Design the sequence.
């Protein structure tokens, strides 16, 4: 989804980002320690807690919502780890809902608002949600809150927004925002639901981006945030393009769409989430309903790895369930930094 240029509003990270300050979905601010690198008396704490959102299903593919901590087995690079923290599927969620408001969605705002409003109503009362709109800018429409009336009122603000698509930078900022939550909020699971076609402008032209997709994928492997992309691209548009070119989709637009789709799938897989199709306005509500069910089929587990090497290697995580035919799904791993 691409259109007119705007200034990107993101935080500097792997690459130099614009110096414009960014809104945050939280009111909390992380404390920073000044001159810590120059403190010769600083003590390095080697303990690292790895947090996981885990979905468990039975042999028929149905969620298992009654598991106990002792029924899970965590393997970190094939080493069995001890579970330090556990929360059941009923634990609350801190959630950022992101809406891609690039120009191609201009005529689809009404069904987008209606579907997102239904999604807000479907969440339990103790879940907190923030609503974010993004184009080339990251706009916080509502900070994290459980006030459903305020959340639904914030959706009305999307009607006057349009522009280009800084998808990578906007996702990075959402990860930043969820990372700002203090430790007291850490018991709640964290997730991002993003309605988009994933077509960052950098895929189509030389538009500057502070973060590449590879940057974003690596960041996702390090954060305990589950990502659910709702792939929203008109199927009718794609069929019309295919027909116009005699069924041959080997053109620039189709290549960009294919790359974007694969990237959305990779991000969902890396974080233990799932990509959900909504190729028409009518399918949006069903897509959000599925996400609402998925969010409350997740367990929260945490462990402290026995062997920390700080060598930058990627450590694979797998979770097993001690029930016949059961399977578990979580993020693929993390970089040992």
Sequence:
């Amino acid at each position: 989804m691409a259109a007119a240029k705007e200034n990107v509003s993101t935080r500097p990270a792997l690459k130099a980002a614009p110096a414009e300050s960014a809104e945050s979905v939280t009111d909390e601010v992380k404390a920073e320690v000044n001159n810590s690198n120059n403190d010769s008396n600083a003590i390095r704490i080697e303990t690292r807690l790895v947090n996981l959102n885990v979905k468990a299903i039975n042999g028929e593919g149905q969620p298992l919502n009654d598991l106990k901590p002792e029924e899970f087995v965590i393997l970190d690079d094939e080493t069995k780890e001890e579970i330090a923290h556990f929360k059941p599927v009923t634990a609350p969620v801190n959630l950022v809902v992101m809406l891609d408001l690039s120009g191609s969605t201009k005529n689809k705002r009404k069904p987008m608002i209606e579907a997102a409003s239904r999604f807000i109503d479907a969440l339990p009362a103790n879940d907190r949600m923030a609503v974010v709109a993004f184009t080339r800018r990251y706009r916080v429409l509502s900070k994290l809150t459980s006030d459903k009336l305020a959340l639904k009122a914030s959706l009305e603000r999307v009607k006057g927004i349009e522009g280009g698509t800084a998808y990578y930078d906007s996702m990075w900022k959402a990860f930043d925002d969820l990372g700002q939550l203090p430790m007291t909020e850490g018991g709640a699971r964290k997730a991002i639901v993003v309605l988009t076609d994933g077509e960052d402008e950098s895929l189509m032209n030389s538009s500057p981006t502070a973060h590449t997709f590879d940057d974003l994928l690596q960041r996702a492997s390090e954060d305990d945030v589950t990502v659910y992309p709702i792939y929203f691209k008109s199927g009718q548009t794609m069929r019309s393009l295919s027909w116009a070119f005699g069924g041959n989709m080997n053109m620039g637009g189709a290549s960009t769409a294919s790359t974007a789709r694969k990237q959305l799938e990779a991000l969902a897989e890396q974080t233990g989430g799932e990509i959900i199709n909504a190729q028409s306005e009518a399918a949006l509500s069903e897509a959000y309903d599925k996400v609402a069910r998925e969010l409350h089929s997740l367990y929260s587990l945490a462990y402290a790895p026995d062997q920390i090497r700080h060598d930058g290697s990627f450590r694979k995580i797998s979770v097993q369930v001690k029930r016949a035919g059961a399977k578990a799904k979580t993020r693929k791993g993390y970089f040992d930094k």
The chain has two domains: 50-89+297-335, 93-295. The CA atoms of residues 172 and 216 lie 7 Å apart. DSSP finds seven helices and 14 strands in the chain. The first helix runs from residue 109 to 122.
